[in-house]
Amino acid sequence: MLKSNDRIRRKWQDRYRYILVDEFQDIDLRQYEVLKLLSGDRANVFCVGDDDQSIYSFRGAAPEVMKCFTADYGNVSEVRLNINYRCPFQVIKHAGKLIAHNSGRFDKDQRSIATEQTPCIIHRCFVNTADEAGFCAGMIGHIMEHSKGNKVGPAIGVLYRMSRSGDVLEEVLKNRGIPYRRKDKRTGFYEREWVKDIISYLKLALSDSREDMFRILNRPARGLPRDCIGLDTDMRSHMLGYFKDDDYRGRITKLLGDIDFIRGMTCFGAVNYILKGVGLLDHIKDEYMINLAGTDQDELITEILERARAHKGIKEWLKCIEACGEETGSVLTDENGEITGSCIAELSTIHSAKGLEYDNVFMIGLQEGVFPLKKCDDIKLLEEERRLFYVGMTRCRKNLFLTGIQRDEYGKRESRFVKEAGICDETMEVAASL
Question: What is the pTM of this model?
Fold first, then answer.
């Protein structure tokens, strides 16, 4: 109507004689067209934005709109806000190196109000996700120990590209009793049917449970009738005495032997044996993952193995799994959900953390295929991933931790963005202020 009806357009132009647009980099082309129609010939428009923080292309945001503004409005006064009042000198320096790899952006000479060049970045690569989570949890606990009585609320932000990147760390934090809050709560990993099968094997390794035996009796397929489990007598005795046929007795003996074998293993060893030794892996892929690409299947299997690696014993892991659906009790909130108690860690995707800031930022899961995403074969998509990395770095007020996997079993290397930021070019240690 604004475009086709002169009367309606003039009415709204007279109503809004001055227009201010914040977060200008996040508007899409349709919203920009509405802005031009509303501002009309007066063109009293004040826009604030940063094209380097345009990270919402999935909902239409286009950083090139900011370039259009100067051309469309002609007599434009441009003010460059080059002073950063949040981040330390080193963070601004390396974030600037990173974002300079993008093309077509506004030139900026970003400077930190903090001129002191104290090292404030720590960069670590690990063999696996469990080691990465253990390191981060240890540092988070250390920071909290030294922050007692000094800070209320989320002084620590743990940021990641994909929600599942925070899952293993969440388990470790919960297991160590470290208070945290998760902004991107999602359906539990342990609620997946194929994961429940693995959990049933682990439970049976600790105690005989008919419920769990019913679940895994033919997972993978063994051709065993459910009647063999029995209801009243000792379950194992009933199963061994149920068949006269040597072939079926052999299948029962193998199943019970596998369960006994698992009992003495580490969590990682047990899951690995259930998948490969017992043969559950092929069953999972055929029954539960048939519609997933091979790489997606591999990533899910890797995730359960990494979760297992983060725990020492089966009993302890099962206890942690049982608690995974519960909120962390040491995070105190009022009736509005606002934090009232101790210093905590806040786990969040970078998209959800935009506009927020933390004394200490942990960016985790920094490997190719995760950050940037594996589907970023287009230059525009890759540049948006780079902007997202830049946004993550600049949430930091004091210390920035960058962690990832050096190279996993599927060949994923550390994220290229770490090197582009110049982090690999020099040795940096965490600030003494910790």
Answer: 0.73
